Request: fold
Amino acid sequence: MTDVAQGSPGRRGTGKRPASGKSIKAAPVNIRAAVESRLAMRHKAERRFRNTGLAAIVLALAFLIVLLGSIIAQGYTAFWSHSISAPITVDSAKVDARDLAGANYHMLVAAALLQKVGAPDDELGDNAAAMKELISTDVAHELQEQLEADPALIGKTVTVNGHLSDDADLYLKGEVTRSVPEAERKLTDQQLDWIDKLKAQGVVSGAFNSQLLTASDSTEPEQAGLLGAIIGSALTLLVTGLLAVPIGVMAAVYLEEFSPKNRMTDFIEVNINNLAAVPSIVYGLLGLALFINWMGLARSSPMVGGLVLALMALPTVIIATRSSLKSVPPSIREAALGMGASRTQTVFHHVLPLAMPGIMTGTILAMAHALGETAPLLMIGMVSFVPGVPEGFNGAATVLPVQIFIWENASERAFHERTAAAIIVLLVFMIIMNLAAIILRRRFERRW
Amino acid sequence: MLVWAALLLLVLMSAVAYNFGRRRALKKSGGRSAALHSRPQYHGYYVALWAGIPAAALLLAYAVFGPRIEAALLQVDPPAAVASLDVNQLRVFYQDASAQASGQGSSETVYAGPLKAALDAKVVEARNINQVFSAAAYAAMLVLALGGFLLAFPRLSIDFRARNRVEGWTGALLFACSALAVFTTVGIVASLTFESLRFFNMIPPLDFLLGTDWSPQIAMRADQYGSSGGFGAVPLFAGTFLVMLLAMMVAAPIGLYSAIYLSEYANGPQRAIIKPLLEILAGVPTVVYGFFAALTVGPMFRAAFNGLGALMIGGPLDELGQYLSQVQNQMALVAGVVMGIMLIPFVSSLSDDIINAVPQSLRDGSYAMGATRSETVRKVILPAALPGIAGAMLLAVSRAIGETMIVTMAAGLQAKMTLNPLDTVTTVTVQIVTLLTGDQEFDSAKTLAAFGLGLTLFVVTLLLNVIALHVVQKYREQYD
Reply:
């Protein structure tokens, strides 16, 4: 060994010496300089290449930060809103006990607030109308409800609570400022003065906007919330999960553990791989043609939405389950078979339980993906305005991502921040699901 | 709701059947379960399966086909009043009758006079048909469940091979589940082709595929602007292509370079941080990207171009300046760039897998020859991984073509034949959404056009996917 190791460079050296020796003698400086300058250039190219790669990653991460940052910056204000709580003296001349529904409560509250800010109403009622713009309709509804519950309150002073209108709320949050010319604002300087006065008197106060999570969609931005959409999403995902998970897992078990190697199996596999890459909107068209037009299921219902998303999630669940089944070592199967278990028993008693953590992780990720899906649900009519909480699986419903789409299209400026807030809520749900998947993986993953 | 109750009843019946079967097996064996061929629970499963599966299949068939058959029965003898209605009105009439009978909201058509009376009569008829039908279906379900039970129960004996039978059922069930994937494909193809054929009956396919005028609003008045009812989809293809091209110009270099950095340069901890962060980018729903494009990137680009244009006005590039200062929020560039951002993690994770699949021996050989890392990547790894990377890019192109929400929210609605990234364009997916989310009149060319576009989209993406998957697979086998 040592002979060869010492001998071989010597032999090669003697063989090549004359040629290289000559060239070194002829131009000793040039070669060295050329090699060094080439090397410097090559190292420079190396650094450039490496830095380009680094720049690409930094850019991608910068996009992520800008994306999330801009959404949080636009949305966090929606979690804070201003409400009004004022004692109103109910003028018996303006409210008739026999015709409670006929009174103009909105105007009544506006007039009372006008008195508070010390501005007299003019004859045409312009001031009261201007004040009316500052308060939301729910104040009047509450007053009416109180009076209907107890008509004896007429002529007395009642405390009513409700929301400030969206524009007034935006002003108090500093999103609309006085620096904007009056003509380009929705509210006049006078109205802004009133808001400031009411705020100073403590009639108007800010608090956490629980409405956003406890109310359903509304045409008034200040009263709009996400509860309906959250419940709609939950119902839809329930249908999706109940269908896609068992069917997907069973299909994967068949393909991975039972299927004979033949053309049929190959065909099914090609199908599944292609289905995973079909654009989601095509699933929406399928849902529209199959479930709504052909089977006659209710439009925009969580049932149809869930069915469409289940078909969409199926390939993902199958692929995740298969890779999880693949990671169970064959020795487990051989041991079970060796003990006399049948193939079905081997799979269901040993392989499947061992693959379960991986299957759960893949399934949760597939569900998180389905939670964020929008386009196919637009196709089955989930874009319609749905006030209130969905009534069961066949009632009209909307889901979180579609709610985001609807609000993004709304013209009121206050919906802008609420859209971003809805995105934050959606992302929180997705983060929770992803965290659950990561925790499952960390806790139960087994390395063979 | 009744279906759910029936399903619950079926589950309960199966549970009871299971108990009966298990007990009978135990009794037959005289308490020594070892004497049985199969363990007692397999006898239970066997009876439960016979009681449950045929009846459940019937219930499923009723849920799927029942409404169709009921609707067909309803149309058997049309009342005299509907003779004046055309095909579409007739369809709406019957749909309304079924909808009212089942207590769903019906269309906004107002019926009056004899039509109203006919509708009311049909509503009653629909209700009756439904009652008879559902009663028959549930009765048949009960008969099947009981029959299955009575068929299976007497078979149980000590030597009965219950386990093998149950395993046979299980295998069939598993196969049915995996065949569902095929049925989904068949369903997609069938529904898209069926509706598209109706569309192509109205509009010749060549006019659709090669026409250059897209204005699907059918004119209400003769002089109405932009509503000639043109269904030439070429402007949509051009718009889709432009947005896809812009997206790939962002996603391909950034995605590929990040994949190279991640697999060749980054150390373990770096990868452990960067990869999950890129996964977050991949997990963000597309509607969020759409919001980002429409309300952050759009106004930002617009302000930048308008500012640039304002600087150029009066200079040698006056005309360009005039143009730039009037650029709007909705432009192909915004949708393209944001879609590109969305595709970065997709491209990078696919390329990462492919680069990692290049055998280490190739790298070692290159290093041994004195090549630097970048030379190894450029001259050895990339050529070796090229087919795989091409496949990954094709998959990304297919994603870009099928992507809906970003373009719907940020690209615009005007069908234009342009390759100018600052112009507003519209894409195939945007038009599908627009055609199907407005007021829907069924059977109009406008609604059916969405299916024509959907079919085109499906065929193109399918071709891309098949080629890409084939290329990637071939490439993987090469080094396995």
User: Anything to note?
Assistant: The longest strand of chain B covers residues 214-218. Strands of chain B lie at 214-218, 228-231.
